[in-house]
Amino acid sequence: MENLANKTAYVTGGSKGIGYGIAEKLLAAGVNVIITSRSQQSANKAADELEKMGHPGKVLAVEADVRNLDSQQRAIALAMQEFGTLDIVVANAGVGHFAPIQELTPKQWQETIDINLTGVFNTVKATLDGLTDSKGYLITIASLAGTNFFAKGSAYNASKFGLVGFTQAVMLDVRKQGIKVTTIMPGSVATHFNGNSPDSSDAWKIQIEDLGQLVIDLLKMPARTLPSKVEVRPSQPG
């Protein structure tokens, strides 16, 4: 996509963190962006902040839950009604529960899988027709935890290992229809994820705007070339 102006992007979990950073960079490039959150209030607050930045792209805030396919389909219907096309999908919404298997609860396990893995399935199913029509781009936000297991990470590792495999299989399913698919696998990112409060001590980490720039760079890759899996980590460990 050499010219991103007036393209339309759908970003799940776009009201904060990585999704917010990606939405901001897309808007700056002239892309119209739909951001979703499970809270309409949170989505509206983020949209107001993004609009005040004065970027050329338009932003639409939608309440939607990736765990529910009907919710995703309703959000896409609103997006199509507002903008008429769907060119870019960023499946970003995620959650993390970290505990030894002895302490991990069934509820924590289920929520992690429902949001991080089934939620992406629902997002893809809801957006596939639009992406097929536009020969668009699907990007999933996985993690280095999708290839590197660690103690207390059984639920998170399972969801992200699954997401990496899911995304690469989807890439093979849809590339003949002209849809490009990439999974981004970040390491440590300066966000509020898992109760963190970003401050100066997080300066060594990947910043949300860095991942936003990575998305822009992927979208502008020549059509013949597809970085299907991108690992990204801080240049120096903290």
From TrEMBL:
Query: EC class of this enzyme?
Result: oxidoreductase
Q: Which InterPro entries match?
A: KR_dom, NAD(P)-bd_dom_sf, Sc_DH/Rdtase_CS, SDR, SDR_fam
EC nos = 1.-.-.-
Keyword field? Oxidoreductase
What the entry lists under SMART domains is as follows: PKS_KR
Q: Does the keyword Protein transport apply?
A: no
Please list the GO terms describing molecular function: oxidoreductase activity
Superkingdom field: Bacteria
Q: Which residues form the Ketoreductase domain?
A: 7-193
Instruction: List the Pfam families hit by this protein, alphabetically.
Output: adh_short (PF00106)
Family according to the record: Belongs to the short-chain dehydrogenases/reductases (SDR) family.
Q: Which PANTHER family match?
A: 3-OXOACYL-(ACYL-CARRIER-PROTEIN) REDUCTASE, 3-OXOACYL-[ACYL-CARRIER-PROTEIN] REDUCTASE FABG
- Protein name per the record: Oxidoreductase
Natural source organism: Neolewinella maritima
